[in-house]
Amino acid sequence: MIIPAQFDAKTIENKWYAYWMKNNYFHSKPDHRTPYTIVIPPPNVTGVLHMGHMLNNTIQDVLIRRARLKGFNACWVPGTDHASIATEAKVVAKLKSEGINKSDLTRQEFLKHAYDWTDKYGGTILEQLKQLGCSCDWDRTKFTMDEDMSASVIKSFVDLYNKGMIYRGYRMVNWDPEAKTTLSDEEVIYEEQQGKLYFIKYKIEGSEDFLTVATTRPETIFGDTAICINPNDERHTHLKGKKAIIPISGRIIPIIEDEYVDLEFGTGCLKVTPAHDMNDKALGEKHNLEIIDIFNEDATLNSFGLHYQGKDRFVVRKEISKELETLGAISKIENHINNVGTSERTKAVIEPRLSDQWFLKMDELVKPAIKSVLVDGDIKLHPNRFNNTYAHWLNNIRDWNISRQLWWGQQIPAYFYGDGKEDFVVAENIEEALVLAKAKTSNSQLLTSNLKQDVDALDTWFSSWLWPMSVFGGVLDPENEDFKYYYPTNDLVTGPDILFFWVARMIIAGYEYTGKKPFTNVYLTGLVRDKQRRKMSKSLGNSPEPLELIEKFGADGVRVGLLLSASAGNDIMFDEELCNQGKGFTNKIWNAFKLIKGWEVSEAIAQPESSKVAIEWYEAKLQQTLLEIEDNFEKYRISEALMGIYKLVWDDFCSWFLEMIKPAYQQPIDSATMAKAIEMLENNMKLLHPFMPFLTEEIWQLLEERTPEEALIVSTWPEIKTFNAQLILDFENTIEVISGIRTIRKDKNIPFKDTIEFKVVNNDKASTYFDAVITKLGNITTLGYVSDKVEGALSFRVKSNEYFIPITGNIDVASEIAKLNEELNYIKGFLKSVQIKLLNEKFVANAKSEIIDNERKKEADALAKIETIEHSLAGLK
Hints:
Helices cover 43% and strands 17% of the residues. By secondary structure, it is of the alpha/beta class. Strand 18 (414-416) and strand 19 form a beta hairpin. 39% of the residues are buried.
């Protein structure tokens, strides 16, 4: 067999992914095995792979591949989300570039364009995930706008409405003027922005006097319907019962009194604009004020804005401040920091707006989700510090605004039969709606043509909160085989930024519809940041293209690079060097594999003692690491699990085990040792496979001719066995001895090809089990135990044991004595400085105990080194 000198990542990745797909290894169907299920957090259908996706999906693939190896029926369901706001915005922009306005199209015409867009660009990200090695059950791929998925959403809406949990209300909502839709509170991101505070003068009717109002939004004066003062504010007693005149418009408004007004903020006079501020709306309702909406849906001013009609709100802000100054109606303008709400999707500044919307009552729905996570612990968040965030959100939850003024999404199944606000019925289709409408109106003459469906669509999250159920048909048919087998799912891997948007809502839905949790564990990844701790984004230019990283470092290298620093919930300071480290690890393993396969095997050679003990040690070390790996997986410490395997393979297998069993130059290896070397390499590949699927499958298949049933992907995880922990401890001592021999060889210029004698004073009564290994790796002719130091020899110490290498003709004794004396003087000086500290009563009394312990350790180490050097000097004289 000719093994390539270099690991060709691209060729091997393409080869094995095609092989896995051809043999249907990723597909799952119910059987006698225990299921292990993950549902993918569905990315936007028109999205492309970014670093966050890379991290999240690599972790999921690690979990699913390990479950497959451990004998579970592993099912990883992929899919995409229709992303109402983001996708509709892209489609609208595309149409606009073609000279087509959305408003000129019917809903069906627009949806055709949207589906065409989705067909063209949708699913790209899923294809990119394949390049990362993701072993999703592609046969189960779902899209939140699939017919059955949409039917699940509609069924859920109707069910909740019939239970009295969904209602329609005229409320003030968060309005995104760019997407032209309402948003839920959770979709609004508040940011501090530098603004201005305008002090505007309002004339008092029938007087030359005026009052002053401080506002950050002078353009909203056209919507003012009152000025409010605090009745306890002595500064404004003279204003009680009077009226004010709005500058520019000249409209007269009452001056009202309410203790809501903060005596300390601004001037103590508050302009009240009930249509454009939540608190003002409450004041307006309390005092029966008129409501004047001055904005169009795109946040341009309407006819109430007079000569500013049709202009954008921020343009008007600049222009109206100039006009007010010209009129002498501004007393001053100050810089002011505002906390501004922006759209999570479009980044547009949000406008409060009054409109009819659909809401879901949350106060009762949320209770099982709180209990499950925070009381019973049935669902665990990893790391658990996110329990506090979860508790804060759910304990302060408000009704969920679930309607959106969009066409791309599930259309709300409410059918109006009249002009009144209550003239509607809710049903899964128009035929059922007609039956309900006839019954409600007692009008048997009604036709479907008399019904008009609500034009709004449902919030995208109202679709995805059903995801773990709907992907298995559990909403439409709760008794179907797949749903009963795969639900509840096991693990969810996602970012903490959607802990409320998605995770909490899935938990709420799960308990509402099944009485069961939707998953058991939630692994919350951190954000991927650059070396300067900045969040990666294309606008900053600090986010590498994931596919370019795969091209450069190989999928396995990128996976390792990402995961080595990806502890749960902690942000990742990403550096391409991490991927280069992953690529280096790939090459290290490949070279180790080539080394083993390059050995000639002989059946006639007896197994050397050094190989026998090396095998026993490595088997123990592998078992110890396996236990640590299992513990880390149990605690969702994926990065620590990988690091444990990394050290096992790089340090223990490549650096020590292979050295211990390697045959002499151009000599064969015995068959027993070779068989064990292959077995150990295979076990390493099993442990590494979830992290590095391509490299491990390639080596596995090259080690031996395998049938499809014997592929690594469907192999078995190494079995946990009892092991001799003392062997591992003894070998740690052996490593120090070998390192001591090698240091003397290097420092004293004793070539490794020259054999040396070795004498040991075994004061520690250390194990002699690895003497054969010491003899081989130190190239020692004889290893003997003596009762006292050896004259005329170089020495070193490991713990209390002393090791001696007799002087050979290659060593300049005079020069060696001079060097040892120099080192001795330095160590004595260092010891003196440490002992001065320890004799300082003030230092000992005030220093922390760990600092004192560290100084005492320094003292003991220095004393031991002095003793060793003095022994070496005595041996040279």
